[in-house]
Amino acid sequence: MKIATAAYPLDWLDNWAQYEDKLAAWVAEAAGNGAQLLVFPEYGAMELSTLDGATVAGDLEQSIHSVSEKMEDAAALHLKLAAEHGVHILGASAPVNSGFGRPVNRAELYTPAGKRDHQDKQIMTRFEREDWGITGGGPLKIFDTALGRIGVLICYDSEFPLLGRALAEADVILVPSCTEALAGYWRVRIGAMSRALENQCVTAMASITGANEWSEAVDMNTGTGGIFGPPDKGFPGTGVLAEGTLNQPGWTYAEADLEAIAHVRADGGVLNRLHWEEQLPRVKSVAKADLY
């Protein structure tokens, strides 16, 4: 499959038609370049809060609920574009009120056949916990699709090996992200590359880019798109299939070859994925070495 992963700038929207036009243009561009799987970033849906004006968009709590109220309309638009262009789309994640007491951070996967399902973020960053009050949602999932088996680790989730291991049967793991600082971008990128190494799969990272003075939530963003694999047989020695230019909006593209993934898992130079279980008895019996 050909993957397109976004470095996506947020815009001020005066009306819904502007959002429709923007999303349609992004999807058309990626599809026109042959992409079959499109990945938008974490919290990219926060631009929808601007439809309710500056006071709402600039307030953390009000912006959360403003965006949540619009996500069914956003889903209908994504399904329409997925069908029109024959592509799978991981929509930008959003805070969603969904019966967990507090909003969850949710990304929806849409298929050209009109199907949809979602992945909720598992582990919250300090900002989400302490300022937003965003909570963890439903369990991790592996989506069986016409393109292959797809998993999603939203931003911070990519930095936890056990979450990645739970998706070891996925061919591709998508990593939508929203990172304020360069250090945050690199934490998520290193996490995405590590999960590709451990699971001997492809990971695809999307980012928000640019400054948004109208928002306290997503006011400053650093990142770019990137697609990674294991540095092993059939993949680049760096593990980098493609990477965008930092903070430059647009799509980054790369092919994810399912046969190459299957081959490296079966007969790679190393077999990280198969050797995972060998860690367990060793970490349970760490010996103390006294060198005083």
Topology:
Layout: E1 2-9, H1 16-32, E2 37-39, H2 54-57, H3 60-85, E3 88-90, E4 94-96, E5 104-110, E6 116-120, H4 126-132, E7 142-145, E8 148-152, H5 161-166, E9 172-177, H6 182-199, E10 202-211, E11 220-221, E12 226-228, E13 240-243, E14 250-255, H7 258-267, H8 272-275, H9 279-283
Parallel strand pairs: 1-2, 1-10, 2-3, 8-9, 9-10
Antiparallel strand pairs: 1-14, 3-5, 4-5, 5-6, 7-8, 10-11, 10-12, 12-13
Helix pairs in contact: 1-3
Structure description:
The longest helix is centred in the first third of the chain and has 26 residues, at 60-85. The mean pLDDT is 96. This protein has 292 residues and is of the alpha/beta class. The protein has helices at 16-32, 54-57, 60-85, 126-132, 161-166, 182-199, 258-267, 272-275, 279-283, and strands at 2-9, 37-39, 88-90, 94-96, 104-110, 116-120, 142-145, 148-152, 172-177, 202-211, 220-221, 226-228, 240-243, 250-255. A hairpin with a 5-residue loop joins strand 5 and strand 6 (116-120). The radius of gyration is 19 Å and the shape is globular. It has nine helices and 14 strands. It starts with a strand and ends in a 9-residue tail after the last helix. Strands 1, 2, 3, 4, 5, 6, 7, 8, 9, 10, 11, 12, 13 and 14 form a 14-stranded mixed sheet that branches.
